[in-house]
Design goal:
The complex is a heterodimer of chains A (108) and B (119).
Chain A lengths: L8 E4 L5 E6 L9 E5 L6 E4 L13 E6 L2 E6 L8 E9 L4 E4 L3 E5 L1
Parallel strand pairs in A: 1-9
Antiparallel strand pairs in A: 2-6, 3-4, 3-7, 5-6, 7-8, 7-9
Chain B lengths: L2 E5 L2 E3 L5 E8 L8 E6 L5 E7 L5 E2 L8 E6 L4 E6 L8 E8 L7 E4 L3 E5 L2
Parallel strand pairs in B: 2-11
Antiparallel strand pairs in B: 1-3, 3-8, 4-5, 4-9, 5-6, 7-8, 9-10, 9-11
The chains are: A mainly beta (108), B mainly beta (119).
């Protein structure tokens, strides 16, 4: 079955840029969705269809997807961005959702 | 406003049963594909059941034959009946709505219900 690989953790200083990656074979041919999950809370969609931003999500959040890597980029990182970030695609053969293992973003 | 509110979590012994409910508001439960997704501590997210807008259901092998998803259109609720529970079923369970659009993501989630399977 299709596997999504995320680094367990990423650290960044406030005001800097965080890049969180999601690897998968030919993931560029799939649509990737990203979710932010703060401690004790449910996931929240922050990027849909690779680079779309839901209403209410700051412009500092952006996404890209090409080849074997999708990337969530957070510009001008703030302390409130500290969270786990999960990527998700659909298995095209089964129409079942596939999630990455999640990346914990730490703001130093 | 779309909202999903879960209830029914708790502590249950191995082999026992538990029923989770998810009250939906702001949309009809027949209007979107709905899922139950669970998360164990330190692990990622895993889907455990789905019900399509048209009513078809499906489950991964890990829970097939033990879990049953259903919906009540009169109450506008989603349910998950979990039988023969195992320790490895311990997790936070979320109901989630797939947004409209081909292969769209999950645009609304419940707050989560903690299920602990232990003797």
């Amino acid at each position: 079955s299709y596997v999504l690989t995320q680094s367990p953790s990423v650290s960044v200083y406030p005001g800097k840029t965080a890049n969180i990656t999601c690897g998968g074979i030919d993931i560029g041919s799939k649509s990737v969705h990203w979710y932010q999950q703060k401690p004790g809370q449910a996931p929240l969609m922050v990027i849909y269809y690779d680079s779309g931003r839901p209403s209410g999500i700051p412009e500092r959040f952006s996404g890209s997807n090409s080849g074997n890597t999708a990337t969530l980029t957070i510009n001008r990182v703030e302390a409130g961005d500290e969270a786990d970030y999960h990527c998700q695609v659909w298995d095209t053969s089964t129409d079942h959702p596939i999630f990455g293992g999640g990346t914990k973003l730490t703001v130093l | 406003e779309v909202q999903l509110v879960e209830s029914g979590g708790g502590l249950v012994q191995p082999g026992g049963s538990l029923r989770l409910s998810c009250a939906a508001s702001g949309f009809p439960v027949t209007g979107n594909h709905l899922y139950w997704v669970r998360q164990t501590p330190g692990k990622g997210l895993e889907w455990v059941s789905l019900i399509l807008a048209g009513g078809r259901t499906d489950y991964p092998a890990s829970v097939k034959g033990r879990f049953t998803i259903s919906r009540d259109t009169s109450e506008n609720t989603l349910s998950l009946q979990m039988n023969n529970l195992r320790a490895e079923d311990s997790a936070v369970y979320y109901c989630a709505r797939q947004g409209l659009g081909y292969n769209y993501g999950f645009d609304s989630w419940g707050q989560g219900a903690l299920v602990t399977v232990s003797s």
